[in-house]
Design brief:
Blueprint: E1 6-10, H1 14-31, E2 35-39, H2 43-46, H3 51-54, H4 62-69, E3 75-79, E4 91-95, E5 104-108, E6 121-124, H5 128-140, E7 145-148, H6 154-162, E8 168-172, H7 173-178, E9 187-188, E10 203-208, H8 212-218, H9 224-239, E11 248-257, E12 260-271, E13 278-286, H10 291-307
Parallel strand pairs: 1-2, 1-3, 6-7, 6-8
Antiparallel strand pairs: 3-10, 4-10, 5-8, 5-9, 11-12, 12-13
Helix pairs in contact: 9-10
Length: 319
């Protein structure tokens, strides 16, 4: 008798289906059970408002979590950067697999890089975080750009460039890699120029907190280094009391001496969307061995950033 298929809840977008399909294969290998995708439409998928207006935090996640709570699916896959920092008691993130490339990328006409863009170039992005850092970059390099708020799937966004409505769009490298379209990238933005969103490039596999058997199986897909890094990044975000639509960038990376990983560096940035003011700091410490140690690294950096005036840069959400 074949075992009952595990039901994986996923958003319907091409990207969500691609990353969920990859997770489904991996879960099927570790459990020996078939996995079927259950497509769920979320508020973030149907709303045409800008993410900054509908709140950003959790708009792609709530419907998946409700399906989990009702037992309609056994587990769900989220892009970690969409996950609110507060974790509901009845659910657990059982696995955070090895992270994809966390960087942002630019797609332009004529193969131009960020440094080649003409003065006054129109760059599309729905992210206040990207706007703040791109505008700060332009200011510091004595040029000017116009950041244009856009929404839509990958095809829609790239379409604005192809049709000549925009000079460039900024997307996450991870998403393009997962749907096999990284060959369209014209520039990988250095994290020294644009720090990614906390958790960018990582996936969270979530299930019911009382399903011990499934938690144990999914845990085989967990990457402890990725988990420590994104925990520190999300702790920073939470300590700044900012949602995932706030202009906050964060990246934790491992500093190695040869083959030996010695330390973890956490960098954070928050800024006004016009790029006129940025607070950008970093801290380095031992690689966190526990969840608490990773959380502490994020809180420590957030405290320093708040002391430098970060709260005033995030708009009314930081009150």
């Amino acid at each position: 008798m074949t075992e009952k298929a595990l039901r994986l809840g996923t958003r319907r977008s091409k990207l969500a289906m691609a990353q969920s399909g990859q997770v489904a294969e991996a879960v099927s290998q570790v459990t020996g059970r078939p996995v079927e995708l259950v497509e769920i439409t979320t508020y973030g998928d149907v709303s045409r408002e800008h993410l900054a207006q509908i709140g950003g935090t959790g708009v792609f996640v709530a419907a998946l979590r409700e399906a989990l709570a009702r037992g309609e699916v056994d587990f769900a896959v989220h892009s970690l950067k969409d996950l609110p920092t507060a974790q509901p008691d009845e659910l657990v993130v059982a696995a955070i697999p090895v992270r994809e490339d966390p960087r942002d990328v630019m797609i332009t006409r004529d193969g131009l890089k960020l440094t080649d863009l003409p003065r006054g170039a129109r760059i599309g992005t729905g992210s206040p975080r990207r706007m703040a850092q791109l505008n700060a970059y332009a200011r510091s390099h004595g040029t000017d750009i116009e950041t244009v708020p856009i929404r839509g799937n990958v095809d829609t966004r790239i379409g604005y460039v192809l049709k000549g409505e925009l000079d460039a769009v900024v997307l996450a490298a991870a998403g393009l890699n997962r749907i096999g379209r990284s060959d369209e990238v014209t520039d990988f933005l250095s994290v020294d120029t644009v720090l990614p969103a906390p958790g960018q490039g990582a996936l969270a596999i979530e299930c019911a907190a009382d399903d011990a058997e499934l938690i144990a199986a999914l845990a085989e897909l967990d990457d402890p280094f990725t988990r420590a890094a994104v925990t520190a990044e999300r702790s920073l975000l939470a300590a700044l009391e900012a949602g995932c639509s706030a202009p906050v960038g964060a990246l934790a990376d491992l500093l190695a001496d040869g083959q030996i990983v010695k330390e973890m560096r956490l960098r954070g940035v928050v800024g006004t969307t016009d790029g006129s003011t940025l607070v950008q700091l970093s801290t380095t410490g031992p690689v966190p061995e526990t969840h608490e140690a990773a959380m502490a690294l994020g809180r420590e950096l957030a405290t320093e950033m708040l002391a430098q005036g970060a709260a005033g840069l995030m708009g009314e959400r930081a009150q």
